[in-house]
Amino acid sequence: MSSESTEVWTGWYRDRSGAEAIVITVDGRQVSARIRGVEYTGASFAALSAAEKGGETLTGCVLEWDLPLPVVVDGVAQQATLSCLLTLGERTDLSLTLHYGGTAYESGIAGGDFEEALDRVRRQLPDGAAFGRRLLQTA
Fold first, then answer.
1. For 115-121, what is the mean pLDDT?
2. What values do phi and psi take at 69, rounded to 5?
3. Cα angle: 49, vertex 50, 55; to 5 degrees
4. Strand partners, 110
5. What is the DSSP string of 38-78?
6. pLDDT score, position 18
7. How far apart are CA 122 and CA 110, in angstroms?
8. Own/partner pairs for 26-31, CB < 8 Å, 24+ apart?
9. Could you count the other beta carbons within 10 Å of the beta carbon of residue 33?
10. Mean pLDDT, residues 54-59
């Protein structure tokens, strides 16, 4: 994904007060989500903080979303879906599962580093397979 493109993914936010549907926007370098009327932004999913409220960090919750992530084999893009589960609390835990070709490739718990978790999934793909695009650009 180039820094000029913006993607929008739907997902769920859950905390002790309940669950609600959310929209996550990613522009290549910035992640944002509006949760219960507050806009949270950050350079990564694990670093979301409120634009208002003195930059309060998003914590004590779970974010869950799916996004399309094509896998390219021999120059041909094939459909795949990346399921993401991010727990923000005392610890930050991120788990990614790529559903591709009838198989689920899992990252395991990877702290909050999205790129590290994605790399764990990538290393499990069959020889010659690669992701069809980047999701976040590193600064």
1. 90
2. -140, 90
3. 75
4. 112
5. EEEEESSGGG-EESSGGGPBP-SEEEEEEEE--EEETTEEE
6. 97
7. 14
8. 26/1, 26/135, 26/136, 27/3, 28/1, 28/2, 28/3, 28/4, 28/136, 28/137, 29/3, 29/136, 29/137, 29/139, 31/136
9. 22
10. 86
Structure tokens, 70: 């094509």
* pLDDT tens column, 119-132: 999 999 999 999 98
Question: In this predicted structure, what is the pLDDT of residue 2?
Answer: 41
* DSSP labels, 5-46: --EEEEEEEEETTEEEEEEEEE-SS-EEEEETTEEEEESSGG
With beta carbons less than 8 A apart as the criterion, state whether 85 and 62 touch. Answer: yes
Hunting for tokens 């020889």 — which residue is that?
Answer: 127
pLDDT-based confidence at residue 4 (cuts at 50, 70, 90)? low
Average pLDDT over the chain, rounded to whole? 88
